[in-house]
Amino acid sequence: MFVHAGLVLSIMVIAFIVAKWAKVTTELSMAVAALAGALFHTKGIPVRHLVEGSFNYFDVCLIFITATFFMNILKESGAVTFMVRSIVSRFFKHRYLCLLLLTIVMLVPGAITGSGAATVFTVGTLVGTVLTCMGISPNRTAAIIFLCAAMSAAAPPINLWAMMAAAGSNMPYVGFTKPLLVLSVVGALLSMFILGARGKQVDLQSALAELPESPTDMNWFKVGLPFFVLFALVAAGRIWPFSMPIVGLPLMFILASITALLVSPHKLRVVEIASETIHSLIPLVGIMVVVGMLIQIMALSGARGLISLGVVTLPLSVLFVTLWLILPVSEGLLQYAVAPLLGVPLILLFNMKGMEPVIALSAMATMWPLGDCLPPTAVVGRATVMELKFKGSYTKDFLKTCLVPIALILLMCTLFLVFSNELAFLVG
Amino acid sequence: MTFLNILINASYYVLSAAVSLILIRNIIKTRDAQEAVLYCIILMPFLLRVFHIK
Fold this sequence. Notes:
Helix content of chain B: over 70%
Number of helices of chain B: 2
Strand content of chain A: under 5%
Low-confidence stretches of chain A: none
Mean pLDDT of chain A: 91
Largest sheet of chain B: none
Structural class of chain B: mainly alpha
Number of strands of chain B: 0
Oligomer: heterodimer
Mean pLDDT of chain B: 93
Distance between the termini of chain B: 25 Å
């Protein structure tokens, strides 16, 4: 049994490497790996299992698509530009307050979409322009945008790594808000202030000249109303759990998007925005559908059990010393696939050892997004340098500047792991 | 309450159908073969949901 599972796993790894070598995208390479494993195990194509697997993260995909659509509607209506221009105009004399508010602006898109790339694409360029006008070097600006984007992906309510690992270990996605909020906000503030504290006062005229114009009749009511609708729907379900129908996050985002459309100062091309949203999400939605298939085939063949067994037999001390490195590196290699692959056995192990699983998973789910700047995938890192038109070296300039804040965030997450029981009060 | 639940349920089918249509539109528009294949893989669960097969 072990030999067979080991063989299936080896075939999957080889198929993945060969596909990557043949310049196939990461998502399709994973699909090739799943198909190769399925062919070897079942001596045919197990259509039922592949279809079943593609539905594993269907709800997460819907949340992802609708949340990004909502953010794109806000961006196209001029609400995001209005927010950034207002912050700069009002607080340009107070550097630290300006940095604090820009950190919050950076955290919002990723927190509600669960994607660091969404943060980079919606507010990355705008915040990057302001940071440059504050005298922050291009290296540091790119590092700040990436790190805040990574922390926004970790921020609640939507943390895809935690959601996928929780779903895989039959654990409700409940109680994650406070631990994820503490880790992501502290992480984002550390990054922003370590890299951006020193510099000059904002040059208001040049900052406003560099930023795109916002529509003249945009105001805080039009910016705030869609968010109010979203949070009201979320709150209503919690305040009146028995008299409020279960709307679900995707429909809540759609209703908030409709509100944003209705209050938009100008007419928006909805179909084009939706089409662009789907196009920009292809790598992320694609990887979630394919990972579902991969996990299903691995579970069918016993390969997933083999990985789980390997992980749960490791001593805790070894995990504490190595996880800070393993988690970001595996994210760079496999992206979201690491959450069900490594996260599920790890969380079951931590639970078995008497640790607080919600705190432990929150800590891991904050370490994973940091790996989004690491090759071979480096999705958010590449998106950052592309959006900011960064001219320096990716490794020597960009990655090197990220190192100190990344090390501090990883240390903080490791401490959360080690002292998970002492921090259980955060679960509430 | 029952009516609202039916309405919400139907909305999710409409949402899946809308995503399917946009995916099909993007499949037709794209010139990248790998992207087209990935679009097709993503389309599968959405279409199966729209047609109540899964």
